[in-house]
Amino acid sequence: MKIFLSFSSADRQVAEAIHVALLGVGCQVFFDAASLPPGSDYNSRIRDAISESDAFVFLISPNSVAPGHYVQTELRLAKARWPRPWGSVLPVMIAPTDYKLIDPYLAAISILEPRGSVAAEVASAIATGLSSQSNAESSVIEDKRSIDNPRRAGGPVSQSKESPYSESYARRVFWRLGTLVTWAASLVASFGLIYLILLAITATGVVEFKAKS
Q: Among 101, 125, 177, 206, which is 20 to 30 Å from 53 by CA?
């Protein structure tokens, strides 16, 4: 893995220890101007070095967040190289620094704040931390896709409204109409039967009345 190590010249001693630790885990590290190939101007070679790197390690300190340092230019180039920093950019707090002064691009990521050996923890983070960041972002994206498309996540999918012109829809409508007509006919027949019974009772009463009279 190719690593671009970005730091303020005032923090060179800490950066050198990190450089050695990264080499020890098999990384190729861009450390300083001596790492640049010959040719073209300095800025172009820095830009090319960042664009060819797999990861960007930025050492945070009061020196590196102060305006006017070239490390800020390197950070700007990193933003262009990795618009989404997760999985590619590792900010490391090597000295107490006011969070208000830290670039939002770096503050958006989990900042590594070593409690033991800075160099050892950075090397370990490169081996495991960046992949964890990448997986975490993938999970967020996947969750969003799952919300947007429940079928993709295997979740419940709302049934689409059936077209009124479909054959199955027409069959159900006719069946319901037939049931309604049958029920109405049965109701009419029942009322008709009741009417006939009442009529017969009435007629019988009239005949008996006349016979008695």
A: 101
Q: How does residue 174 score in pLDDT terms, banded at 50, 70 and 90?
A: low
SS3 letters across the chain? CEEEEECCHHHHHHHHHHHHHHHHCCCEEECCHHHCCCCCCHHHHHHHHHHCCCEEEEEECHHHHCCCCHHHHHHHHHHHHCCCCCCCEEEEECCCCCHHHCCHHHHCCCCECCCCCHHHHHHHHHHHHHHHHHHHHHHHHHHHHHHHCHHHHCCCCCCCCCCCCCHHHHHHHHHHHHHHHHHHHHHHHHHHHHHHHHHHHHHHHHHHHHHHC
Global pTM?
Answer: 0.60
Tracing tokens 């220890």 back to the chain, one arrives at 17
Question: What pLDDT, on a 0 to 100 scale, did the predictor assign at position 115?
Answer: 92
The Cα–Cα gap between 134 and 136 comes to: 5
The pair phi, psi for residue 55, each rounded to 5°, is -150, 155
| Residue 8 structure tokens | 């303020």
* Number of C-beta neighbours around residue 112 at 10 A: 19
Neighbours of 211 (CB within 10 A): 7
Give 182's pLDDT tier (boundaries 50, 70, 90): confident
